[in-house]
Write a structure and sequence with these properties.
Layout lengths: L4 E5 L3 H12 L3 E5 L5 H18 L5 H10 E3 L3 H5 L4 E4 L5 H14 L5 E4 L6 H5 L8 E5 L9 E5 L6 H13 L3 E5 L7 H17 L5 H11 L6 H8 L1 H15 L8 H8 L17
Parallel strand pairs: 1-2, 1-4, 2-3, 4-5, 5-6, 7-8
Antiparallel strand pairs: 6-7
Amino acid sequence: MTTRRVTVVGAGTMGAGIAYAVALAGFEVCLTDSRAEVLPLALGRLNDLLAVAVKRGKLTEPERFAVSAQLRAEHQFAPALSGAEVVIEAVHEHLGVKQQLFGEMERAAPPDALLATNTSSLSVGDIAAAVQDPGRVVGIHFFNPVHAMKLVEVVTHPRASPAAVERAVAFARALDKEPIVVQDSPGFASSRLGLALGLEAMRMLERGVASAEDIDKAMELGYNHPMGPLKLTDLVGLDVRLAIAEYLHQRLQEPQFEPPQILRDKVAKGELGKKTGKGFYSWSA
C-alpha cells in the first residue's frame, strides 16, 4: 500500500514536529489533539518553521505553499482519523493514557491503517495489548527536531505482524529517514544508551567533576556528538528524562538508570529545561 494520508495524534513538540516532517515528504497530514486550543498554536509553529526554511534557502515559496497545503488540524477525533493510512500517536509518556487512546484509534481508523506509537521507552507490546488486532501496532520512534534528525526506531513486538513492520520501515524511508528495527525492550536502543550517558553526565556535574559546559564539550569535541548530554536533556525536558529514568530503573533494576538527586531536585523546582527557561543551562525566551 502506498501511504498518502497520515494522522498525528498529539500536537505537542513531537507531534507537531512529526506532522511537519511528514508534510515535507509530500504526505497529506492531519494533526489532532484533545485540547482544541493547542491546534492553532501548533499550526502557527509549523508555518514559522516553513518561513525559516524559505529564508535559509531550504524551500522555495511555491514549495512552502505546497507543504502548507498538506497540513490541516482537526479537533474532532473520528473525522481526523477518517481515511488515514498511518496513525501516529505522540502524547505524553503514560501507559494507561496510551492504551486508552489506542483503543479509540482502532475504532476510529480504517481497519487497514497502521497504528504507530512514538513512545521513547514504554513497551510497545503493552500498548498494543489495548487493541483487538495487536498485529497492526508498531513503534515508530522519531527524534527531536524531527525534520533534522535522520534516525527512526521501528519497534517490533512478539504480536506485531511482519507486514506492519515492513510498512513502518518503508514509511520511515519515504520520509528520507534511516530506520533501524529494534525489539520491544525497555528503552529500545536509543533511549537506553542516551539516557545512560545523560544520567552519568548529571552525576559528574553533581560531584563537581566539571561544569555542564565542559562535560558537554567532552562529548561534542572528544566523541563528535552534535550536542552534549546535558544540553540535550534541557531540550528534551528534565521531567521527560526523569520519567523515562524511573521507568527504566523499575523495569531493568540496573543502578545506572537510577535518577540522580540533581535531576529530581531540578524537576521539583520546575527547572525543566528550555521550555521553562532554566535546566542545566539558562535559556532566554
